[in-house]
Amino acid sequence: MKKVETVLTHLLSRPTYAKLGEQECFRLIRKALPDPLRRGILFMYVKNRTLFFAMKHPAFKMEFDYKHSLIKNLLTSLPPLREACEGYRIETIKAFVSRFAPTAETRDDTEPKYRERAHPTFPLKSEKREIVEAFEGIRKSIEKNLRR
Length: 148
What we know:
Elements: H1 4-12, H2 18-32, H3 35-40, E1 41-47, E2 50-55, H4 58-66, H5 68-77, H6 79-84, E3 92-97, H7 129-147
Parallel strand pairs: 2-3
Antiparallel strand pairs: 1-2
């Protein structure tokens, strides 16, 4: 009976599952990076032997640029990274700020957030029924707002 590791490596070597090997390479690279850089990465991809990092914010990109040589050394020195990423022949590393960065959701509340300053005690000196009913509606609205 074959071991699970041998079956998985055999499956990952097939061209149909090449993306899984690429994702494993990216996972190991992300794991090897320092924590502040790791938090700033949205996604990674390889194109024309260049490893691209999509960053969440320009500050993360600046930190990436400062630690560019560290990342290059990690790729060449760590054996697990070399083995997982050997098929991609990464020569250069670049970073950019993605325009697809997640944004915080803003809720538009239509309810007023202020304290009612009016008082529902005002005299009604009108004799017309429509005006009295309108003022009674205003009075009820003020009382309702005071109860909140």
